[in-house]
Amino acid sequence: MKKKHILITITILWTLFIFTQSLLPGDISSDQSGFIVDVLYPLVNKMGLMIQVNDFSFLIRKLAHFTEYFILGLLLCILYIETIKPNKLWLIVIIHGAITASIDETIQLFTPNRSGEVRDVLIDISGVIIGMILTQLWIKRIRNHRSK
After folding, report:
1. How far does CA 24 lie from the centroid of its chain?
2. pTM (2 d.p.)
3. Which of 3, 75, 112, 115 could form a disulfide with 11 if both were Cys (CB 3.0 to 4.6 A apart)?
4. DSSP string over 19-36
5. Are 69 and 128 in contact (CB under 8 A)?
6. What's the burial of 105, exposed, middle or buried (CB within 10 Å: 0-12/13-18/19+)?
7. Residue 60 in contact with residue 33, Cβ under 8 Å?
8. For 17-76, what is each residue's pLDDT tens digit?
9. Three-class secondary structure of residue 93 per DSSP
């Protein structure tokens, strides 16, 4: 039971982290992603990938959405996998992720220089789904390895 409480706490903290990022005004959020762009863009150019800096910045921002929700999908899957039947696990995790993403984008509607976008909700949900799929595959592999 202690493990379950730890998982719940981590999941709540991660969700709060996501919401906190959405409360950052647009200029601060842009500075954060701009830092990542400044570090990675020269590497991308050295690799010979021809991409405009604005397009690369857009990609980094969307990957941030995906990554936040990939981790949420992983946490939700681990949290629910022991207590929810497999055929309902997908539904519960996706609904939980979709509600979180919708709240997240709604928060951004009220944050200076930010916008809430349906496209971002879809990116977020795709992160949850991929996180859930990979977590299930990882758990299945561990269980198969232990049974040998």
Report:
1. 17
2. 0.90
3. 75
4. HHHHHS-HHHHHHHHHHH
5. yes
6. buried
7. yes
8. 999 999 999 889 888 888 999 999 999 888 988 899 999 999 999 999 999 999 999 999
9. helix
Question: Can you read off the two tokens belonging to residue 117?
Answer: 């976008």
Look up residue 1 and give its two tokens. 């039971």
Residues in the chain: 148
Please give the DSSP secondary-structure letter assigned to residue 84.
Answer: S
Q: What is the mean pLDDT of the chain?
A: 92
How far is C-alpha 70 from the geometric centre of its chain's CA atoms? 4
**Cα dihedral sign for 102, 105, 109, 110?**
positive
CB 124 within 8 A of CB 94: no
User: Do residues 108 and 118 lie in contact, with contact meaning Cβ atoms separated by under 8 Å?
Assistant: no
